[in-house]
Write a structure and sequence with these properties.
Helices cover about 45% and strands about 20% of the residues. The longest helix has 22 residues. Helix 4 links the parallel strand 3 and strand 4. The protein has 19 helices and 13 strands. Helix 9 crosses helix 15, helix 11 crosses helix 15 and helix 12 packs across helix 14. The chain has about 425 residues and is α/β, with parallel strands linked by helices. It has two domains: about 140 residues, Rossmann fold (3-Layer(aba) Sandwich), CATH 3.40.50; about 280 residues, no CATH class. The strands form two sheets. The protein has an eight-stranded mixed β-sheet. Strands 2-3-4-1-5 form a five-stranded parallel β-sheet, with helices on both faces.
């Protein structure tokens, strides 16, 4: 399956400033698959080592950091001739071997001619005890679950994807029904590659949901594996509270929802761990809509979103049919699913942070982002209801700004606001 990150991987390969690459992301977002596909397409051969499963890899870096010796060992393990610039060396699950991350520094300094890419779950990489990522000696790319446009491609809808990316709104309107149908499928399936594959192969919602449950189970096992029991309990409290957090009207994270009487000091570390693992995305409150938004963050107020809307459906045990056949594109769980969907698409398709804005009880804006030199206020609507009181009020009080409303309605340009169909979020910015 094609992933947009392929273009970034090509740019990395061709860069004169190339360093060893860490492809970071939550478990099961497709890191290993895409590195192998990239290697097959762009190199003469691939030397792939699974550091978790290959016994010889366990002590590969323990003796020393002699790159010549290490490269010879990798060649012996893989049976591949390693030629600088023509061979892609892939070290998978790098976090599972001692000094695995540290060796990247020496590839950078002593043997930059070798093309080295490593994959590992963010959970393991960021939480590796006694070892950290060699800052300044590696390139890092982040990988996320499949976005809606990638889902279109997986379904064989290349032309529909091209049209969507072209922003030919007249043609897009003609295909509106098909885009919405596939969006409903995406709400249910989400972007985890295994869930997408199962959906495409079987078209059986129950089998897709089984895959999603398996992924959720794996995440919980990973949490237990990497942290002490006392902390894993707190992480699980936050994790299990996510459907309830998102079901609230304002979506603001409340510690008391995770645990009765819970306070910030009880869960700060747990939240940081989930963010570090790539399992949740954080949207912080900004007090003022000014450049740069980071300067105006209120650290005490934030929202958390799940990395994938399909997993949200599984965690909340939302019936597949309510997502697949809803008459108006998600009326039943509109708030939770729509905002989580928009957040996941924005995070995966942009480099900058995503915030939200609130002025007490007067108004609350779903999202606020920086796009180039502009601040863009965003409202997310699950249906075709075009009332945008908060967005209208915000724009009117911030001259020069232009609002964006993502909804189930067609493209429409107004003086103060542009309505963009929900299925175009991942390609709009």
């Amino acid at each position: 399956m094609y992933r947009n990150i392929i273009e970034k991987l090509k740019a990395w390969k061709n860069s004169e400033l190339r360093k060893p690459l860490i492809l970071a992301g939550a478990r099961q977002v497709g890191k290993t698959y895409i590195l192998k596909e990239f290697g097959k397409a762009e190199y003469s051969n691939v030397a792939y080592v699974n550091c978790d499963k290959e016994a010889m890899a366990k002590t590969l870096f323990v003796e020393d950091y002699d790159i010549k010796r290490i490269v010879m060992a990798i060649a012996a393990i893989t049976g591949e001739t390693i030629v600088p610039g023509k061979t892609l060396i892939i070290l998978d699950e790098i976090q599972e071997v001692k000094r695995g991350l540290s060796v990247l520094k020496y590839f950078c300094e002593d043997a930059p001619e070798y093309h080295v890419a490593v994959a590992g779950s963010l959970l393991g990489i960021t939480m590796r005890q006694g070892e950290s990522v060699p800052v300044g000696k590696v390139d890092v790319l982040h990988m996320y679950p499949m976005t809606y446009d990638e889902f279109l491609l997986a379904k064989g809808k290349e032309q529909m994807c091209d049209i969507l990316k072209s922003k030919d709104w007249k043609t897009i309107k003609l295909l509106r029904g098909e885009y919405i149908k596939i969006l409903r499928e995406y709400y249910f399936v989400g972007g985890m590659p295994e869930a997408v594959k199962r959906f495409l192969k079987t078209n059986d919602p129950n089998q897709v949901r089984d895959v999603q449950y398996e992924i959720l189970y794996t995440y919980q096992k990973d949490i237990s594996k990497h942290v002490p029991t006392s902390e894993s309990n707190r992480i699980n409290m936050v994790w299990q509270s996510m459907p309830s957090q998102l079901a609230k009207e304002n979506k603001k994270f409340m510690y008391g929802v995770a645990k009765k009487g819970g306070r910030a000091k009880d869960f700060e570390v747990a939240i940081q761990w989930l963010m570090g693992a790539g399992l949740v995305y954080k949207s912080e409150l900004v007090k003022e809509a000014k450049m740069s938004l980071k300067y105006y963050v209120n650290i005490n107020s934030f929202k958390l979103f799940l990395l994938d809307c399909g997993l949200l459906g599984a965690m909340s045990e939302t019936a597949p049919e309510s997502l697949l056949v809803a008459a108006n594109g998600m009326e039943e769980a509109k708030g939770a699913f729509t905002q989580n969907y928009v957040m996941s698409q924005l995070v995966a398709s942009r480099r900058n942070s995503v915030f939200y804005y609130s002025s007490g009880n007067k108004l609350e804006l779903d999202f606020l982002i920086q796009h180039g030199t502009e601040i863009v206020p965003i409202e997310a609507k699950a249906e075709e209801n075009l009332r945008s009181k908060s967005l209208a009020s915000f724009v009117s009080s911030h001259p020069g700004m232009h609002g964006i409303r993502f909804s189930m309605s067609d493209y429409r340009e107004q003086e103060w606001m542009t309505n963009i169909p929900l299925y175009a979020v991942s390609v709009y910015f």
